[in-house]
Amino acid sequence: MRTLVLNGNNIIPDGQNNKLRYRFPNSVQFKDTYVSVQSITMFYSWYNISASKGNNTFSFTFTSPAGGGIQFYTVVIPDGIYDIVTLDEYLQFYCLANGLYMKTSVGQNVFFLSFAINASAYGVQICCYTVPSSADNTKGYIPSSTGFPNASFLPQITIPANFNKIVGYPAGWTSANFIGAPSSSGFYNLVPYTWNATTGVVGYLSSQAPQVNPDASIYLSLTSINNPYSLPSSIIYAITPSTGIGGVIIDKPPQFCWNKFIDGTYNQLDLQILGSDLQPITIYDPTMTILLAIKDSDEWGGK
109 pairs with which residues across the strands? Predict the structure, then answer.
């Protein structure tokens, strides 16, 4: 058995860090030759939300003060690695930047839309809070520079396709846009919800399992492999991180899973990292080491 070592020096410099090329010192002849992943060390550094995935936007309405009417806001999330907590933090940042918030008497920021994890229900909870006018500001909120609206209202959030998978809502789902108990009809009714008559808060819950990371598993594709039971036929291994985002992935298979090379003469091998959709995925940290084991069928007992 022989071992090939691929690391950052083998990465093809196209900015994606997902293609590695191993050049043999001399041409080699493969006949009844097999390859298996021996070990992988890399960082969990691929984005789950990006413009290229088309899952980086959602929108909501907010009523402007002094009779300005309903305004529509589209939140464009910068490409990155997010969980539900950091999504909520970005929503708060967006509201701060646009004056869509108030303050308590002690200076604490108050926001009227939120994302939160509901661990017991394995879902994402979206909450919409009633924005008070000056006349019904029972909690003594202090408005931002934009001032109070003429009348109390409930922000309305819309979850578009692709982003909906992140939070587990139907594509195009929109929350209720009126104050009071939601009726039994309406598009918002596609997901479970609760209404608190005292606080004026409407809480919604995912109707399907959130896919916060669409690429929870990634795949290794190696040239010159012909696996008739796999599509594409070049897949030799799947990596499922057992660490948090940004952590070090150390993956060592408990046993070798041999894949047969197509018989022939080789000068190089190309390894590519694919996402769960089997398309190339950008890896943002090029620090990685991938060991491949190669053996002939007549070594230690055959195949």
Answer: 103
